[in-house]
């Protein structure tokens, strides 16, 4: 009797855990949080290169896809000095959909070397 109750309890807990893991995550983050993440990446790179953040900075005007913000901030931190512009992959911040998967034949490091200035 006690074994059946424990088995039932563990099964119920596993089901709840599985359902919570299977839910799609909220992929949008508020504009303020996205702006903070981009600013932190730019400040880190500017300090690493002993220079100022390129002007004008990237501005986030609307809620963003988490993937776009992550790709942009990772690309910024992987730039080589001097930090004179932003990676081309940061254009994803100004689209309304998530940046698609990067094909295996494209080198992410090469993409981060492509920069743009305003």
Secondary structure layout:
Blueprint: H1 2-22, E1 28-29, H2 31-48, E2 64-65, H3 66-77, E3 86-87, H4 108-113, E4 115-116
Antiparallel strand pairs: 1-2, 3-4
Helix pairs in contact: 2-3
Protein model, in words:
It is a single chain. The chain is mainly alpha-helical. It contains 4 helices and 4 strands. A two-stranded antiparallel ribbon has the order 1-2. A two-stranded antiparallel ribbon has the order 3-4.
Overall shape: it is elongated
Question: What's the N-to-C terminus distance?
Answer: 71 Å
Helix percent band: 40-55%
Helix tally?
4
User: Strand tally, please?
Assistant: 4
- Poorly predicted runs: none
Helix and strand composition category: mainly alpha
Largest sheet: 2 strands, antiparallel
% residues in beta strands? 5-15%
What spatial order of strands do you see in the largest sheet?
1-2
Order of helices and strands: HEHEHEHE
Q: What's the overall average pLDDT, rounded?
A: 76
Tell me the Rg in angstroms.
20 Å
Short description:
This protein has 118 residues and is mainly alpha-helical. It has helices at residues 2-22, 31-48, 66-77, 108-113; strands at residues 28-29, 64-65, 86-87, 115-116.
Key features?
single chain; mainly alpha; two-stranded antiparallel sheet; 4 helices; 7% strand
């Amino acid at each position: 009797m006690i074994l059946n109750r424990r088995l039932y309890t563990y099964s119920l807990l596993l089901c709840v855990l599985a359902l919570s893991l299977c839910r799609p995550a909220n992929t949008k983050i508020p504009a303020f949080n996205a702006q903070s993440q981009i600013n932190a990446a730019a400040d880190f790179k500017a300090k690493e290169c002993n220079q100022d953040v390129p002007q004008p900075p990237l501005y986030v005007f609307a809620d963003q896809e988490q993937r776009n913000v992550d790709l942009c901030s990772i690309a910024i931190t992987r730039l080589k000095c001097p930090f004179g512009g932003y990676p081309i992959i940061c254009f994803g911040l100004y689209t309304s959909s998530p940046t698609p998967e990067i094909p295996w034949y494209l080198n992410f490091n090469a993409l981060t070397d492509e920069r743009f200035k305003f």
